[in-house]
Task: structure prediction
Amino acid sequence: MKQDKLIKAILMAVALSAIGGLGLITLFIFKEGLPIILQIGVADFFCSTDWSPGEQRFGILSMIVGSVAVTLGAMAIGVVFSLGLAIVLTQFCPPKVAGVLKPLIELLAGIPSVVYGFIGMVTIIPLIREYVGGPGFSVLAASIVLGIMVLPTVTSISIDALNAVPRSFWEGSVALGATRWQTTHMLLLKAARSGILAAIILGMGRAIGETMAVIMVTGNSLEIPRAITDPVRTLTSNIALEMNYATGQHRKALFATGVTLFIIIMALNTLAMAVSRRRVAGGGNR
Amino acid sequence: MPELQTQPVFHAREVESSRPSRPCFDAPPAHRPARDTGEQTAEPARPKISVRNFTACFNDVPGIRNLTLDIFPRERLAIIGPASSGKTTFLRSLNRLNDLERAFTCSGQILLDGEDIYGPEIDVAALRRRVGMVYAVPVPLPWSIYENLVYGLKLAGVRDRQILDQRVETSLKEAVLWDEVKDRLKEPAHNLSGGQQQRLCLARVLMLDPEVLVLDEPCSGLDPISTGKIEDALLELKAKHTIVLVTNNTKQAARASDRTAFFLMGELVEVGPTADVFTRPRDRRTNSYLVGQFG
Amino acid sequence: MKLAPTAPLPPVPASERRNAARRIRLMPSPTVTERIVVALLWAMAAITIAVLVFIIGYILLHGLPHVTWSFLTESPRRMGREGGVLPMIVGTVLVTGLAVLIAAPIGVATAVYLTEYTAEGRLTAVIRFGADCLAGIPSIVFGLFGFVFFAITLGLGLSILSGALTLALMVLPTIIRTSEEAIRAVPYAYREASFGLGSTRWQTTLYVVLRSALPGISTGVVLSVGRSISETAAVMLTAGSALGLPDSLFDSSRTLALHFYYLAQENISEANAYATAAVLVMAILAINLFAYWLMRRFIARGGHHA
Result:
């Protein structure tokens, strides 16, 4: 009995390492990044588009706009495809085919982001340059690449949400003479909407946090984009591009960029948790 | 959202032996339950298990209430009663398996050879080796037949291959299974038929040579032939073990027990020699149950 | 909605009848709509699979011809314009292996604690919250943290060890979650049977629960290996980008993914970039196949539904 208590205590200590790691990350990112935000001034840091590390001017507005633009574009593409896939896999697909498709979609999640970036660079960018205009490196290119990259995440969580809808709902609807598609879009999507919303929010988190693929296809210009064919720089690529040679205030400003990213991600995570908790509290959907 | 699940598999209360309410009193050693009709049989004076005013609750709802009962060495006690009459709860209290449920609380005493099994000094693992249990549904662990059998002894620290092999053979013989499996001990236990699996589970418990053997409707899912084999085994085992058998099947109780206890809604209605309980029950409710009024 | 008998309906005017007919003709019937929608949805699925096949095919087609024995066994020369990727393979194996060796025991222990040793309460909610949040943090933020904490504060420098520790923290949530799912899939009856035979909680956990959940847990671990190999941003800031073979875990070492990034982004060598990508993709394919095989075996054993 004593031995069991000891084991329990050890396991508990180990189990706390996840939250401990989160605490350390929060602590160190903020310790490095927060002072310089306060020193520059919150308004100047977030609302200025002037990022000139050489002259100690650090404003990240254009990167915030860049991140948001790229993320929204990615979601526009990714959500449509993810929902389509989730619906096909749960409603219209024989289980055997689904058994083949699902691992393939998971494989899509396993491909390194640098490979996505590279493929985007050598295939999508020349196409955009040729047929849409602009330099090719653009919000559009990043949206397409990220749209594909968030697809596995959004699809698999949406599948869970759709599968969680009780079978009896479906049977009731079909018994009333509804076709499969009518049942899906009138009933299943509504019943699973909070789960799907959580999937979309988590997908946004992935898109906004993606770094390497984005660097390779956005062109990394510091201008606020006026069109979807304009190049942009995101918060993540700003850090990755400059961290290797940054020192002093410049490095601290990059940590401040990280703080911004961290806050956005935490907000999205909390939102996703709140949305899916409501689903659990609403009952019936487990 | 699997990461947001909040349902536990089960709760860890096994190690905590603290209970909210435990009235402390000493039961008179030779005390007999008032309604015991078994005075005339010559039983040893000292019971193997004596249950004293035992109450077991789940979420403060009593599953058994104020139970007082003696179980004697080398007897087969059958417990009968309708569904949710507390039979299984009682059985699982005897080896403290109810402790695994978080919502479980109990009061009163269960004495095994005079020692309170809910006392603070009790090693629960050792207790469960002394009180072996066979469940309603056979649960062979997903290993070979041999591994299933030696698991309990290995847990207890027995490593000697010769002793293990010898115990495997005697236990399988006691459980009337040896002839059927002696050549296939390395096969997965899941390949056995339902009746064989249940006898394997019996043999697995017998490996530990428990003093008390408790069986929870061991034949509920079995065909008459397998049931007969298990009943035969119990008759043999009576010589060495105290046996408590919960059953839904009154005919089985009549066939395979020395004494019978009738439970109703968490209370002990009457207990006595099986022949007496079945032919001239003292309590009207026992009679109603036996003629089939409670289903 | 009364069903009481009513007066006979007034005749519908002819114009009204024509309009109704036209409306019906304009709206396709539900069955037709369904056919169109299903075709569209299947087209989406086909496009997705086509994209996957295209990416893998494109990389392998362009890269595999350049993957020679000497490419795999030589060090890079002239910043990677010539030579091979041996140090990167070594670096990747070390960083990834070490990260998973650190994360797996912690992750499995956490899952065991959550499922076997405690009831749901405030503490488990906090642990789950921590794991969920960690799972959402972008890799570049992990990189920043690893850089300032492991490399600078703990003084490990840009090294294999810093990179591995950072990656361990990154894959921890995956390992916790997959282990927890695998453990929960072990039937409660197995535990009960084991306890009934006089086992302590630890013995049951070790011999029954973990043993039965092992294939599921391994799947999670293997997928974490894949994720670590793919990771670029975090190792760039923590493991550095040295080109040589590392002498110890305190040396900086460039991983394959990072090497590929430099080759491609800085236009160093197209042939070598494709070849490196091909090696990377082959590794990922092998790992995913292995994980898939493990998972199938886990399901196929079927013993779990007894």
Observations:
- Residues 280-286 of chain A have pLDDT under 50 and may be disordered.
- The longest helix of chain A spans residues 248-282.
- Chain A touches chain B at residues 1, 4-5, 8, 157, 160-161, 195, 198, 273, 276-277, 279-280 (CB under 8 Å).
- The two ends of chain A are 36 Å apart (CA to CA).
